[in-house]
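Many introductory courses stop at the sequence. We go one step further.
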Amino acid sequence: MNAVPSPPRDTVSVVTASYAADFERCRLLCETLDRRVTGFDQHLILVAGHDVARFEALASKNRIIVDERDLLPRWLHVMRDPTSLAPRHMWLSFRTKPLRGWHVQQLRRMAIADHVRADALLYCDSDVVFLREFDCATLWQPGGLRFLRRPGALADPKLAPQRLWSANAGRALGIDADRTSLEDYIATVIAWRRDTLAGMCSHIEAVHGRHWVEAVASTRDFSECMLYGRYVDEVLGGAGHSATAEELCHIYWNGPRLNEADLDQFIAGMAPGQVALGLQSFVGTDLGSIRRLIGAA
């Protein structure tokens, strides 16, 4: 039986997994984070070893650049992708499927639990900007840490890939395959308890008798958010968490590139409780336009 998470002491670290192509977007995240977010002790930026030197330009007294080689197993090796003309990488081992950068970013986000002391981790993607004041102390609710859950969201046919991620999360956690879940736990600004995350990784190792990275990455279709969400709900029974369907970030997941008029309209659509804007970098919205519209030019 899994232990109930210990009571919080309420410290928070902000965590961002990033890579070279998102460097300027990550810089903007850092600027808006420093300007508008309080109540956290440090900001950790997790990157591959070949990106460390570039990201050191963002380091400060409370912003630390973390090399993935200090987080992930030594048997997971990174190399340039010989099939791509672009400067892309892949991660190989005899224990996992071949992995791309977006897979390994997820693994870093889980692995950081064993390397920090903060009670909560606020994950922010590097293509997020904070537009409103936010105090991380508010992540702690009377029932525990704020926990994003959108009940029944995966019933939407458009989210079929996420149903596969959910099913694979259940497999990794040892949940009966007949227990399907339609809950969605994915967001670009999201909080997790560090002790719960560490407990989840230990639970996966106990279920499979091997390193949690090996178990999770035995498939390329996985989501760290689905893993954490199903672990909290179906293994811990929600202990230590306070569920909400309200997102902290107004997200543009996909679609056409936004011009300034479109972007201005999208920003106007932020809900009262949302404090950040997430514009997926692959959409290609001009970073200069984003800076001008949020007053960071």
